[in-house]
Amino acid sequence: MRKMQNLSKNQQIIFDLIDKSPEPLKAYSILFNVQKRGIKAPLQVYRALDKLVEIGKIHKIESRNAFIACQNSSCQISKATAFSICESCEKVTEINNSNLSKYLTSFKDKNGMKYNKYNLEFFGLCKKCISKKS
Amino acid sequence: MRKMQNLSKNQQIIFDLIDKSPEPLKAYSILFNVQKRGIKAPLQVYRALDKLVEIGKIHKIESRNAFIACQNSSCQISKATAFSICESCEKVTEINNSNLSKYLTSFKDKNGMKYNKYNLEFFGLCKKCISKKS
DNA sequence: AGTTAAATTGTTATAATATAACATTTTGTA
DNA sequence: TACAAAATGTTATATTATAACAATTTAACT
Known about the structure:
The structure is a homodimer of 134-residue chains.
Chain A: H1 9-20, H2 27-34, H3 42-54, E1 58-61, E2 66-69, E3 80-86, E4 92-94, H4 98-105, E5 114-125, H5 127-133
Helix pairs in contact in A: 1-3, 2-3
Chain A binds a DNA duplex (30 and 30 nucleotides) through helix 1 and helix 3.
């Protein structure tokens, strides 16, 4: 069976919501927003989220328990993710920097472990929030 | 008031438990383990964990919702953390690699954001688990 | 078209993780 | 000794996530 490109109904509903959101969405906020579209239970949301993460359409921001759409059109599977997070306004942006990804993908520590995946979260203040404070 | 070096009673109890554990501990597992020592409520555990994270004695492994003692004696505040996580046995090790930390601490993306903190989690198979599979 | 296996969905209940709110006590030091 | 900050104790509740089971849909292959 050739890999389906299309999302299922629930997956599509939830992806659309996340994709048009300017900020990461949390699972129960998603649930609340899709109840009018017939998705009633947390598990329906979590199952769609799991699948979307697995196929790389969305990423989980671990430190926030929230989900954002993949910004990187070529990113089919999310084995190498990096984000910048503003600690003031909570804006999250996916970092797409080939120097960084090359460095981390080829990184080898002395423990002899072979890495096949990484997730990196940078924290700081975004431009807007820096200017607000000064 | 000069910064206290010593931990409070609850902080010490919880730090000792985490520090002697070979693996990351979860909050409710900690709670269960310290009940005999008089800590009865989740909030008592979370408050101690928050403080210990803040002062850099422990780190939170975000992808696992678990806590490990800082392996790096010089790490008083945890602004730059990196871990390797075995996806088979769940062993977690703090990575202490100056090349990596220099690279990431000085990393600047094109978005103009100033980072003051990062957390990096590598996933893969540890040596033991690689040999088990082959 | 009919068969089949995998994927998805629906549903109820419950587990696991984390914080709010408020009162009290301890600690370090001015 | 009085004050402010930090830590503690306690009850209740909010938030995040999964278990278990049944039914339906999908897509590849006869």
